[in-house]
Amino acid sequence: MSPVQRRRLLLVLLVLAVAGIAAALVATALQRNIAYLYTPAEVKAGKVAPDARFRLGGMVAKGSFQRAPGALLARFEVTDGDARLPVTYDKILPDLFREGQAVVATGRMAGGVFVAEDVLAKHDETYMPKELADKMGVAHDKHQVPATTTPAESR
Length: 155
Description:
Blueprint (H helix, E strand, L loop, with lengths): L2 H31 L3 E2 L1 H5 L9 E7 L5 E2 L6 E6 L4 E6 L12 E9 L2 E9 L8 H14 L12
Parallel strand pairs: 1-2, 5-7
Antiparallel strand pairs: 2-4, 2-6, 3-4, 4-5, 6-7
């Protein structure tokens, strides 16, 4: 192998090594920022790592919302028809937040309670995130409940 070919081979190997390291760093960064969607039944079944940040999806259970007068801390339960999970949130709730409505909250588990960092409520009567609609559809089928909310067909 001539010296020119050797330098070219080393340059190609160096470029491939740098590209591989960059790809690994990007994959690691993306994996840390991904928040998977789980239902209360999946959380209670232990499908979530103990300190993982994830999205909790379901319906706000009727009669579960509590907030002390003058306080910002809200407590409520999210249900998927199979299980209920208590949630706390210490920020201003969305205007469309109410009991019996679909909600997606992002946060972590702490002592059996989901501590939400963000709470999103559906914006109208026909929208629910597709992932949540699919999981809620399975729960509706299991309990023979007619589905009243359909997922958005296009985004």
